[in-house]
């Protein structure tokens, strides 16, 4: 009975950890220039132009960027990472966005393999794009990302509470048998 109970607790503890693996997006960037906007001003809207869209406005290139999602990350959160980086770089648009799927294969455990999205683009600043510049405001995209992680963490919190409760019960029962 002890072995079954111990095994059950261990499985619950590990199932709690699985949800959080590979949740961070990976980001790479190459600086290309500097935004002409004061360092304490940020755009209230990030314009996104995918690779097949015509760009008929002048712009200043700020940075080339690549964002790769994590294992359980939905596309809208990966795009929020992209927008957040535009926001932090004081750009107001990202152009030439391309996306591709990237697969990770775990040969030891094929069920642990997954595919995620990778987005690449160039962060720019353009006076031609309609943008309101806000002073010193926190990125709304960072808040979306944070809310996503809170919901993922919260959705598995019951398993953590149950496994902790069972661990305490196990310790009490084990102590009484001595």
Describe this structure in words.
The chain is an alpha+beta fold and about 180 residues long. It has a domain of about 120 residues. Helix content is about 40%, strand content about 30%. It contains 4 helices and 7 strands; from the N terminus they run αββββαβββαα. Helix 2 runs antiparallel to helix 3. The longest helix has 20 residues. The chain is globular and about 65 Å long. The two termini are about 15 Å apart.
Task: Briefly say what this structure is.
With 178 residues, this protein is an alpha+beta fold. It has a domain at 22-137.
Helical amount: 25-40%
SSE pattern, N- to C-terminal: HEEEEHEEEHH
Largest sheet: 5 strands, mixed
N-to-C span: 16 Å
Which properties best describe this structure?
five-stranded mixed β-sheet; globular; alpha+beta; two-stranded antiparallel sheet; 38% helix; 28% strand; 178 residues; 4 helices
Secondary-structure topology with pairs:
Elements: H1 2-18, E1 26-31, E2 41-43, E3 47-50, E4 60-68, H2 75-88, E5 93-104, E6 114-125, E7 133-135, H3 140-155, H4 157-176
Parallel strand pairs: 3-5
Antiparallel strand pairs: 1-4, 2-7, 4-6, 5-6
Helix pairs in contact: 1-4, 2-3
């Amino acid at each position: 009975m002890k072995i079954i109970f111990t095994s059950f607790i261990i499985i619950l503890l590990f199932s709690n950890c699985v949800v959080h693996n590979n949740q961070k997006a990976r980001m790479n960037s190459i600086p290309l220039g500097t935004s002409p906007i004061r360092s304490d001003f940020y755009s209230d809207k990030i314009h996104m132009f995918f690779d097949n869209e015509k760009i008929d406005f002048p712009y200043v290139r700020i940075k080339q960027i690549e964002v790769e999602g994590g294992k359980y990350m939905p596309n809208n959160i990966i795009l929020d990472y992209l927008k957040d980086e535009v926001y932090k770089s004081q750009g107001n648009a990202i152009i030439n966005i391309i996306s591709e799927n990237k697969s990770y294969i775990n040969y030891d455990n094929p069920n642990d393999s997954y595919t995620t999205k990778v987005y690449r683009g160039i962060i720019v600043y353009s006076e031609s794009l309609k943008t309101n510049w806000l002073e010193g405001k926190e990125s709304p995209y960072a808040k979306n990302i944070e809310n996503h992680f809170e919901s993922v963490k919260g959705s598995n919190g019951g398993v953590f509470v149950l496994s902790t409760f069972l661990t305490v019960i196990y310790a009490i029962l084990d102590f009484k048998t001595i």
